[in-house]
Amino acid sequence: MFDLHSYLKERAQLIERALKQSVEEPTGAAARLHEAMRYSLLAGGKRLRPVLVLASCEAVGGKVEAAMGFACAVEMIHTYSLIHDDLPCMDDDDMRRGRPTNHKVYGEANRDACGRRAADGRIQGARVVGGQKLVACARP
With bands split at pLDDT 50, 70 and 90, how would you rate the model's confidence at 66? Predict the structure, then answer.
């Protein structure tokens, strides 16, 4: 019998590892920006959206590895939307997933650069890398 709870947990762990590898460790001139990106992106969560990407790939006979780049892209875009949604001009939230929101820790200016860089890089990655991988997913 298929154990959905175990499947979700296992796939979320795979995604978490891939996300950690996808954003550089904070060093050099962009250290604060990378730190802010990692702060929000690696704050946990169910990772349901990227799990659905992987499940879709598997459902058509593809391999998880083929869809991982696109799954990470989906999660980064979701995180970008949460960062912006928390701003004072939007929902004005101070906490997200039990932690201070990105703009409370890193400031609004850094939040804007962080969100744009995460979304821009991943949208491009999804189109170029993920596009090829989605084709691979469709092949048995």
Answer: very high
Strands (E), 1-140: 95-96, 99-100
Which pTM does this prediction carry?
A: 0.78
Helix (H, G, I), strand (E, B) or coil at 54: helix
Residues 59, 109 contacting (CB under 8 angstroms):
no
Dihedral angle of Cα 34, 127, 55, 84, to the nearest 10 degrees: 40
Alpha-carbon Rg for the chain, nearest whole angstrom, is: 16
* Burial readout 53-83 (b: 16 or more C-beta within 10 A, e: otherwise): bbbebbeeebebebbbbbbbbbbbbbbbebb
- Assigned CATH topology for domain 4-137: Farnesyl Diphosphate Synthase (1.10.600)
Tokens 């904070």: give the residue: 26
CB contact at 8 A, 44 and 97? yes
Domain ranges of the chain: 4-137
